[in-house]
Design goal:
7 helices, 8-stranded parallel barrel, 23 strands, 6-stranded antiparallel beta barrel, TIM Barrel, 2 domains, alpha/beta
Length: 367
């Protein structure tokens, strides 16, 4: 788990709200000053950091090597703060990380950020010293946590509002799991033409992976990515030919306790995010690079999921072309033009009712 250290050195007007939201999100690493430590010193479960050596915190942060050697204590973790200005500073961080003198190093980079941190991650990822990046905002936090895929071991950030803390939780959520089940095709209908939406992600999608799309919020069909080479068309492994403009697609929710919400395909555009899912139900968030809407002939599939004695009807609309595929229960992709009534494909049963994309408990009829 990535280490998130919240800078609570200043007692701002929303200090108490920030601290409460940190507890709600289970963020317990706090950087404190003398003023703010007095507010929280009786709360045993927090992991305290400080630059003030008079405070009995669990983690001390030094910015001077001589002072580190003089004041280092065996009963607390010791860290070091360094601002990257020159190439030699990068070397100093790497050398210090190998000495085992400190448990963590907090690094700030005002100008060049990505390249120095790539170098530090590559050099430090196998040793025991945590690399903590000091960041200014959520976007920078995401960048640092994902640089070189491995990312830094943690970040130090000053939250400006409670939404910053909620978004931080979303960044470090463990792998998303979305439950898939099988549905039987019960009807196939030709639609002469519709506005079709192609969603091109900025990530390469894998065989067995695609987007969950449905005509109703009752359920979503796994539409496979265009990862396959064919005689007539090259593979486009970033693309899902998703469906018609009125269909729902699963997108991430800002609330980390709620995995997803829905958007209409017509609402998507470059820069937005969607949820990619593979046939095992393993999900990840990917960004959209481009959306293409064109008029194409379509196929409407009606499906049915059996849950005990209950039958749940679903539907989706796909372009009528060989390159568009649904996913069978064994994970294999099957072209929509080869699918027959009685075939089974993977789907996700949805909440059944949504309001502006968010699930709600109300009676609703979609047909």
């Amino acid at each position: 788990m990535k280490k998130i250290i919240l800078n609570f050195e200043k007692k701002t007007d929303n200090f108490k709200n920030l601290v409460q939201e940190a507890f709600n999100m289970n963020f317990l690493n706090f950087l404190l000053s003398e003023e703010t430590y007095s507010e929280l010193e009786d709360i045993e479960r927090i992991n305290t950091f400080t630059k003030n050596f008079e405070i009995p915190a669990k983690n001390l942060i030094f910015d001077n090597l001589e002072q580190l050697k003089k004041e280092k204590r065996l009963d607390v973790n010791c860290g070091f703060f360094l601002e990257l200005k020159l190439k030699n500073d990068e070397r100093a961080v790497i050398d210090l990380s190998k000495t085992k003198e400190v448990n963590f190093i907090i690094v700030s980079a005002k100008d060049w950020k990505v390249i120095p941190f790539e170098n530090l991650i590559a050099a430090m990822h196998t040793n025991d010293t945590d690399l903590i990046a000091m960041v200014d905002d959520i976007e920078e936090a995401e960048l640092m946590l994902k640089t070189l895929e491995t990312g830094v071991d943690g970040i130090l950030i000053t939250p400006k509002n409670v939404n910053d803390i909620v978004q931080l939780k979303s960044l470090i959520q463990p792998g998303i799991k979305i439950e898939l089940t099988k549905a039987k095709i019960t009807k196939i209908q030709n639609i002469p033409e519709s506005e079709r939406v192609c969603v091109d992600s900025t990530s390469l999608l894998q065989p067995g992976e695609g987007f969950l799309v449905g005509s109703t919020a009752r359920g979503f069909v796994l539409i496979h990515s265009e990862t396959f080479e064919t005689t007539f068309v090259n593979s486009r492994p970033f693309r899902v030919n998703a469906g018609d403009v009125s269909a729902y697609i699963l997108v991430p929710n800002d609330d980390p306790e709620i995995i997803y919400q829905t958007n209409y395909l017509s609402e998507l555009k470059g820069g937005k995010k969607v949820i990619a899912v593979n046939y095992k139900g393993e999900a990840r968030i990917v960004s959209i690079g481009r959306v293409k809407i064109e008029i194409r002939p379509m196929l409407r599939f009606e499906l049915e999921v059996s849950e005990g004695n209950k039958k749940i009807p679903l539907s989706c609309i796909c372009q009528n072309a060989e390159t568009i595929r649904l996913v069978a229960p064994d994970g294999k992709a099957k072209s929509v033009v080869a699918i027959k009534i009685g075939d089974e494909v993977l789907v996700h049963i949805g909440p059944g009712a949504t309001h502006f994309g968010t699930a709600i408990k109300e009676s609703i009829l979609e047909k």
